[in-house]
């Protein structure tokens, strides 16, 4: 019984760290992944490097093509998108 009493503070510290640090980080990662998966052509995005551009093409191999300026296109790894500034509406199915 005394052994459980000695480990109780350690267990409580782990539980507090889980709820304050680990769970919020996992939630943030899931939200980022959902945002990245929802990127479409025409969206304006910000990369982790701070570049702002418009998505020209979404490729299958975890890569997108972003137009930074008139005629300036770069290939970007999809997971390095930090933020979607403006979203385009999906095309109506008619």
UniProtKB/TrEMBL annotation:
Tell me how this protein sits in the membrane: Single-pass membrane protein
TM spans, by residue? 6-22
InterPro entries, alphabetized? Preprotein_translocase_YajC (IPR003849)
Q: Name a Pfam family for this protein.
A: YajC
Superkingdom classification of source: Bacteria
**What's its job?**
The SecYEG-SecDF-YajC-YidC holo-translocon (HTL) protein secretase/insertase is a supercomplex required for protein secretion, insertion of proteins into membranes, and assembly of membrane protein complexes. While the SecYEG complex is essential for assembly of a number of proteins and complexes, the SecDF-YajC-YidC subcomplex facilitates these functions.
What protein does this entry describe?
Answer: Sec translocon accessory complex subunit YajC
């Amino acid at each position: 019984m005394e052994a459980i009493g000695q480990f109780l503070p350690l267990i409580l510290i782990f539980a507090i760290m889980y709820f304050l640090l680990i769970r919020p980080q996992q939630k943030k990662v899931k939200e980022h992944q959902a945002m990245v998966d929802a990127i479409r052509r025409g969206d304006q995005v910000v990369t982790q490097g701070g570049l702002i551009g418009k998505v020209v093409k979404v490729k299958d191999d975890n890569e997108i093509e972003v137009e930074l300026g008139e005629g300036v296109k770069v290939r970007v790894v999809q997971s390095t998108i930090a933020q979607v500034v403006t979203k385009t509406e999906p095309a109506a199915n008619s």
